[in-house]
Amino acid sequence: LLGLGWCDRALEGPPRERFRAFVRELVRPALDRLGWEPGEGEGDVRRALRGALFGALGGLGADPEAIERARELEAAARAGGEVDAALAAAAVQVLAVHGGVEELEAFRRAAREARTPQEHLRYLFALPEFRDPAAFAVALGIALTDEVRPQDLPQYLARGLANRDRGPEAWALVRDRWDDIMARVAPSAAIYLAYGLRGLTDPAVVGEVQAFFAEHDIPQSALQLRQILESQRVHAAFVARATAELAGW
């Protein structure tokens, strides 16, 4: 499923729509065989697989039934209903892909009112995964406020950087507010922000990122940073190489 996600990043327009149809044809039969709901005495592996398949069908495949089911599951979970944890997490991810400002504001309230730390982080980290431009702008706008705790900020920004459609906007924030960000996070945690850089594959942005970190090191994690920057170059090369081939296929 991770590989399908990278293929999705390399496609736009009609080829991407055909790819979504391919994902639906691939994933839906597997989910139907497994069952859309957990069975009695089912193990954690099957539950995790169901969540992954459901998330791929609704997110990568943009399957209407899965998206509607995600809305029902998320609403039930937020209201305190008994919803399988893997399905609840997948539902939040699906709605971040397809939702707008209304859903984002509901997620912000859910993060503030969460009954457990896990629920808080589920909703908080979904905010920078919204693809809608207006919703993502709100998510970026709260990144350096008290709404996002310093210990959560690196992963929050990493998810924004990895956002398929809005990653360059998150990069602009990181680039322009680097000193403010570093003042908020522990030096040992700064590297976790950088993991999101691997999702930035536009050649102009890649060049900016590589040049920026040639002058802005993370001394506590210098080797990891070099590995992440190399990984970004590898991913950018894949997208450049694979786009035409995937579109033709």
Features:
249 residues, mainly alpha, 14 helices, globular
What does this protein structure show overall?
This protein is an all-alpha fold and 249 residues long. The chain has 14 helices and no strands. It has helices at residues 2-9, 13-34, 44-59, 64-78, 85-98, 101-112, 117-126, 133-141, 153-161, 167-176, 178-184, 190-194, 203-215, 222-248. Helix 4 crosses helix 5 (85-98) and helix 13 packs antiparallel against helix 14. It is globular, with a radius of gyration of 19 Å.
Low-confidence stretches are: none
Mean of all residue-level pLDDT scores: 95
Give the biggest sheet.
none
From the spread of the alpha carbons, the general shape counts as globular
**Structural class by helix and strand composition:** mainly alpha
Backbone CA Rg: 19 Å
Span between N and C termini?
18 Å
Query: How much of the residues is beta strand, in percent?
Result: under 5%
Helix content: over 70%
SSE pattern = HHHHHHHHHHHHHH
Total E-strand runs: 0
Helix run count: 14
